[in-house]
Amino acid sequence: MSIALEHVNYVYSPGTAYERHALKDVSLEIEQGQFVGIIGHTGSGKSTLIQHLNGLMKATSGNIYYEGQSIYEEGYDMKKLRTQVGLVFQYPEYQLFEVDVLTDVCFGPKNQGLSQEECEKNAREALELVGFPEKYYRQSPFELSGGQKRRVAIAGILAMHPKVLVLDEPTAGLDPKGRDEILDQIDHLHKETGMTVILVSHSMEDIANYVDRIVVMNRGEKMLDGTPREVFAHYKELEKVGLAAPQVTYVMHDLKERGFDVAADATTIEEAADDIMRSFHD
Amino acid sequence: MIRDITIGQYYPAESPIHRLDPRVKIVCTLLFLISLFIQNSLLGYVIATLFLGCVIHFSKVPVKYIAKGLKPIVILLLFTVVMNLLLTRGGETLVHFGIITITENGLRTSVFMAIRLIYLVAGSSIMTFTTTPNGLTDGLEKLLHPLNRLNVPVHEVAMIMSIALRFIPILLEETDKIMKAQMARGADFESGNIIQRAKAMIPILVPLFISAFRRANDLAMAMEARCYHGGEGRTKMKPLRYKGRDKMAYIFTLIYIVVIFMVGRFVPFKLWVF
Ligand SMILES: Nc1ncnc2c1ncn2[C@@H]1O[C@H](COP(=O)(O)OP(=O)(O)OP(=O)(O)O)[C@@H](O)[C@H]1O
Ligand SMILES: [Mg+2]
Question: What is the number of domains present in chain B?
């Protein structure tokens, strides 16, 4: 077991007019190597949740275990935890600051105390992993496009060789092509390195194709937790909280209601297409 | 973390102080600040404390929240106290140890200076806690209106002030975000000597400046897109008008000022009991 949360609560600005109970009794276990999607409406507590995973936020109550050890224990090495659980923030391009791309990606490994050569080696590998073109390595990070900046920021985390990669809406504000490219790369990375990946998103459509498991957050509570198939079966409840199952779920349910012999639980377009074809051939 | 800084922020609540006309709050705050400096007796400070306590009580802003606002001035406070304590001469010598000499006057001055500084910040934070930035701008603009004749761009100055106030929480939030993002990359802001710590600020400051400029630019564009063109010919949707409670507040503050002035005048300095 890689990460476990036990009855985690978090309250913003307790005791003031701005008080906000952002996480309510969240318990969660994430196995090593899993690809987990966390989904929820705006303000449901996704970003708050994941900032607990590497100790950037401390739970108001409850406990968090990384590899079996409580991270709130006296003298726990937070800095090491942060390099093992790599967290890519929402709009990470705003954290870039160095004179060129390569140096910026080196920032993480340098903080880990690696030598200059090692830093650069890790940085180059990471940039390659996210598919960043080599000819821009010496460019200022401020002169890149949004999607390229996003890649650099993700590489900045990957260069630290984390065991768990947490991404907060890595595709927000990207066009469909940029979005698919980034998601494909993350998927590739997951398969290649076997690292645990936790992906936060607004959109079921985006992540249904990739993840093994979906956790649905609603108003700070864990609402659903299961494989995409299990979660999408509750599509009516999802709608109530402002989310939606992928379009294919609706198409398949409609088809089934009109008497076609299809399985209603397809989660991806490919799966649905195969199923429809099969029902025609039968 | 850094979001704990509450200076210049608005604290939403339903209270008589919140409902006052912003002009009243600005003028009364100024009078209160002046009152701190026209007297120097124990009795005067007791009266000032009562006045401030009353206002805080009625404003419904938690004392904890105001105390948090004092955090940024702690260093200034310590510096003032130590300087006054060590450098003021006169009166009886209380402690004499090597080069350190603490006199009665020094002790008194430093204690009073500390109280003044704390009340100064607490008093002005009560104003910003209970007035929205928009209210503050409107009030200031109206109060300074006569200066228009002297070609002072009153509206612009007030606008700049309110934008600056509005940006404090935004930039704090941004700083918090960037700090966390760099900490996620293993940055360390807590250890090391002064030079190392200053250097560790670069990964925060560069993105912060870039984002501040970007925001300023966006704001300018948004204002122009809504045909903002300065104060000329601009009317108000809710013009400020004094009501009964505003007059009451003025009277209350005036009484306070007169009392404290009298105390400063006629109660002998030596009423200092220790
Ligand atoms: N610094 C803060 N102070 C007070 N409340 C906050 C703060 N940050 C977030 N919140 C509140 O906590 C709740 C959860 O916020 P969070 O950022 O975790 O949502 P989210 O699921 O990531 O939303 P989004 O999809 O918009 O990113 C929201 O209701 C938000 O208003
Ligand atoms: Mg978020």
Answer: 1
Distances (CA, A) of A231 to A108, A227, A236, A270, B188: 36, 6, 10, 18, 40
Tokens of A240: 């109530």
d(CA A230, CA A212): 11
- For B119-137, the DSSP string reads HHHHHHHHHHHHS-HHHHH
Select from B6, B14, B185, B205 the residue whose CB has the most chain A CBs within 10 Å, as the one to mutate to test that interface.
B185
pLDDT tens digits for range A156-169: 999 999 999 999 99
Give a yes or no: residue B140 inside a domain.
no
Taking the Cβ of residue A51 and every Cβ of chain B, the question of whether any pair is shorter than 8 Å is answered with yes
Taking the model in full, what pTM does it have?
0.78
* Residues with C-beta atoms within 5 A of ion ligand 2: A 47
pLDDT digit string (tens) for A70-96?
Answer: 999 888 888 889 889 999 998 888 888
In a domain, B137, yes or no: no
Helix%, strand%, coil% for chain A, nearest 5: 45, 20, 35
Token pair of A146 as six digits? 């949004």
Which of A9, A24, A48, when mutated, tests ligand 1's pocket best, judged by the most ligand atoms within 8 Å of its CB?
A48
For A266, half-sphere exposure in the C-beta direction (CA atoms, 13 angstrom radius) is 25
Residue B205 within any structural domain of the chain: no
B233: in domain: no
Is the CB of residue A101 less than 8 Å from the CB of residue A136?
yes
